[in-house]
Amino acid sequence: MPTTSTPRRQFETLADAAERTGLSTRTIRRRIAAGQLPAYRSGPRVLRVDPADVDRLMVLIPTA
């Protein structure tokens, strides 16, 4: 009988998200504080974000 496993969610640090997108960690933190980016806490000082959520912040600007 085949088993189906749910894929594990991947999370990244704020620094990794900032480096990957070319934003600053401060900008990532501002987006979290504004409610535009969900963040996940693992301990009192550890924040992680889902890369897919970070990617959704990046919006393509249409050209003429």
Task: Give a written overview of the molecule.
Helix 1 crosses helix 2. Strands 1-2 form a two-stranded antiparallel ribbon. A hairpin with a 5-residue loop joins strand 1 (40-41) and strand 2. 9% of the residues are buried. The chain contains three helices and two strands. It has 64 residues and is mostly helical. GO terms for molecular function: DNA binding. It comes from Flexivirga oryzae. Residues 13-58 form the Helix-turn-helix domain.
Number of extended strands: 2
Structural class by helix and strand composition: mainly alpha
Count of DSSP helices?
Answer: 3
Mean pLDDT over all positions: 93
Q: What's the alpha carbon Rg, rounded to whole Å?
A: 15 Å
Q: Sheet bearing the most strands, described?
A: 2 strands, antiparallel
Which terms would index this structure?
two-stranded antiparallel ribbon, 6% strand, 2 strands, DNA-bd_dom_put_sf, SinI_DNA-bd, single chain, mainly alpha, HTH_17, DNA binding, 3 helices, 64 residues, Excisionase family DNA binding protein
In short:
With 64 residues, the chain is mostly helical.
Write the layout of secondary structure elements.
Elements: H1 14-21, H2 25-33, E1 40-41, E2 47-48, H3 51-57
Antiparallel strand pairs: 1-2
Protein name: Excisionase family DNA binding protein
Pfam families: HTH_17 (PF12728)
GO molecular function: DNA binding
